[in-house]
Amino acid sequence: MDANKIFFINSILKSFKNSGLRSLVIFIAIMIGACVSSAFINVYADIDAKVSKELNSYGANLIISPSDFEKENFISEKNLSLAFSKIPKELVLAQGKFLFSSANIGTTSAVVMGVNFESLKKVMPYLDLQSGKMINLDFDNKNALIGVNLAKIAGFKVGDEVEIKNSFDNNVIKVRIKGVVYDGEKEDNLLIISLSLAQEFFKKDGLINYSNAIINTDFQNLSQISKNLSNKQIHFEPVSKISKSQGAILDKIKLLMALISIIILIITAICVNTSLSSILLSRLKEIALLRAIGASKKNILNLYTGEIFTLALLASIVGAFAGFLLAQILGEAIFSSTINFRFISVVVAIIVSLVFAFLASFYPIKKALNANMANLLRGE
Fold first, then answer.
1. How far apart are alpha carbons 25 and 46 in whole angstroms?
2. What is the rounded CA–CA span in Å between residue 264 and residue 30?
3. Where does the chain cross the membrane (predicted)?
4. Is 161 helix (H, G, I), strand (E, B) or coil?
5. Residue predicted with more confidence, 6 or 123
């Protein structure tokens, strides 16, 4: 029994040595297949969070407004906070609050928008600076941002002091322009001040006109949250063009990854099949000689499957761990972040690679075992 084991092991080692380059080709092919499978499994497991993060950078995906504009144009901040307290904190990435009113600035009239400056760039990522600086503190009541179109009409620039006169009670405040902003939307025509200053100036303490937020979840869950939180005073509405695209993009990326993995595994199988056929063709006389000295088909089958299993196992283990490195490269290139390691990716990559390797080797081994031994021994 021990002698058979030693013969078995020696035969495998001798086979690797004699078939050198062709065994190396099989090893590399299986390793690449396992590497790609492992990498895609790791990326696949992280892709929901990565894509959600990317889409969340495109701005708010939830709009909150009064339920009936004909009856009420304002939302109570207290009621809004109470509603938001029902959303898990970890899902709320940013929230913006907005209060609008008209006022006279200089010699012209304009719409003044009160905002939370700290979350402004998160909920309005396309609001860019043309000149000056952004305001990053919610309680900055001395400075303001001005839209590029309004700045041209009113003749204001960065550093100018603007006198804002309330159209209803002639109350006056002064702010200094810190930045000129643009986004191609309504903000180009607005004067933007802090929400607290706007509420005090327009006498709307604790009130806003609308709010928006970035909620880190899919469209279905966001729709359910909106439905649960909406009431007679406040209406929650998901921004479908952002939220729906999340699921659609994810499905397409996952499908693409699955197709690429299958194609690479098929190419791997073809490469293994071709190389193994070449190896077995060169060893037909050896097989015939083994049969002639008494080896059964089962003995030869065990010998060659042992060789393939050893080679495929080593290649798939190396490839599976190399796949984690490939996943990091893909993560940095696509999402600018790392991909988490999952041991299950190694296990699955090894199993898949072994299955494809044995499927690829089935026909060459079968052909070798069924060859006419007498003709081979005669050299025909």
1. 32
2. 10
3. 21-45, 255-281, 301-327, 339-363
4. strand
5. 123
